[in-house]
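Quick question: what would this complex look like in 3D?
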Amino acid sequence: MNARNDVNGVLLDWLDEQVGRGAPDYLDEILARTTRSRQRPAWSSLERWLPVQMTFTGRLAPIPRLAWLAALLAMLVLAAGALFVAGVGQRRLPHFGAAANGQIAFIDGGNLRVAAADGSNPRTVTPLPDGAEQLTFSPDGTRFAYRTTESVPSIVVAYADGSNPIVVATGASIGTGDPVGWSPDSRRLAFTKVIVADKIGTIDIVDADGSHQTQVIQGSAAEGLDRYRPAWSPDGRWISFFSSEPNGYVALNVMHPDGLGAQRLPTSPMNPQIIDMSWSPDPAQSRVVYVAGGYVKMFDLATAQETVIGTGFWPTWSPDGARIAWWGDRVQALDVADVLAGAARPVTLFPSYGSGNCQDHPEAAGKSNCGPAQWSPDGLWVYAPDVTGKSILIARSDGTGHVRSISLDHPINLADGPGGLLAWQPIAP
Amino acid sequence: MQQEVVERARRGDHDAFAALAAAAIFRLDAAARLILRDPDQAKDAVQETLVRAWRDLPTLRSPARFDAWLHRLLYRACIDEARRLRRHRFDVDLTPIDHPDLDDANAVMVDRDQLERGFSRLGPEARALIVLHHYLDLPLPEVAFALGIPLGTAKSRLHRALQAMRAALDADARPRAQLGEGRLA
């Protein structure tokens, strides 16, 4: 703020302008909080007891590249082996494969509405509480879950026709807005719970009838480490979750549903603002897609191999796990086998709207999307909100034919993100 | 003088801590607002920073490092805040970044609207680098300490942050069809 070098004078003047000169008025509020807080005893810091400085800022001697590569290879092999060994003996859950298409469900204003697979016959099923979001069908399609973030945050499960809604978890601690993860047998849900005082995320599991809520892994307020956004693997043996890293990045981890065997995957570090991952729906595979460093990447837990799918984000799997769609200036899809063979041939599903904010392109209404492209249960269609949030676009997943749309009575607020307002009901065979 | 006050605060003197907090809150609030681009989030981050500072102060080994330690806590609080409240928001620049030199970049940063857009498109980590180094005038080793990264990494990330800003500014000036960039909320 003073005596700084003037190399970037214009930038510095602008930064000063942005801040202004008004003094913050909440110091008393903070001091009221600290008055009520007890200090940690000095001996509780490990660093005070060790004869070394744990925060090393010096320069290390360079490690020979060959040794580094060998060490990396050994780590990957060990990680793959550990995952394999730790997974042995875990119960595999039945999987019925691809499902038939049920109805497209969407949260439209304060209502749950449905439409036929071709977009026809839209109708209201049931009213929902204000702020309902993160709509997800159970894998067997018989029930759906959603969360509410208004007043008292809750996770609610109801039958597919909207009947018998049950609050399976409630309280300020679950007001995270994170998606809810169904177990592959449709009996349980995993979700993020935040310890409000410390803002540290933990992960709980609850039966779909609201019973047996259990914390399976907790964060560490002392280490500033939280764990959040659980997702169940399709074979039921693993739950993935994100964890904060001391360097500000986010890591992807897995653990068994009983909370044991937690381990960090050797994936690329992820930007905390752009975390997005999903498991391949094929239980014979142990693959995840995620976003890291501006790329969509796939990680194979069996081989510990990370593969770049393309530049972009919002990756989604086809129901058979054979294809991945993602957004990289337009929605594309490609065959995973082609990517692994080094011969990827992406197909455009929704056209590009141009540049900048998608919601600033009303001219692309009804043509281009602004949200992750999700797959129909039979894998023949993909759907997503359009750039205005006023309709749902439906396109063939092979890139042929015309884009259809379902008009919404209450546009989706895309500035807050799609927030899981759309879901396609699977019908189990 | 400050070290004495820090030492008193470490021993549980709340008045001493109040003096430290009062001296620091303006710059912490300013830095947090620049990093997070949201006054409410900035307030939460600063509150978290100072509450944690009070709670953990007895574990601080060297009172002389109080400011550096405080900046580190602020950075962590800002990143946590950005992640927690904007997990499902996207702000991604897919434009391939070419490699202009920094002098060239400085010459372009003349339009305030462009600065606003370019700065907003950076992630909070990159904004923190610029704010700590250029706004708070911290030397790069202090910035590296605050971010918990090696000095060389801090240098290269700062360089990349300014390059990314340049790329964003360039992108604004390019015809739409040439862009491969998407900002999604």
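Answer marked as accepted. The radius of gyration of chain B is 18 Å.
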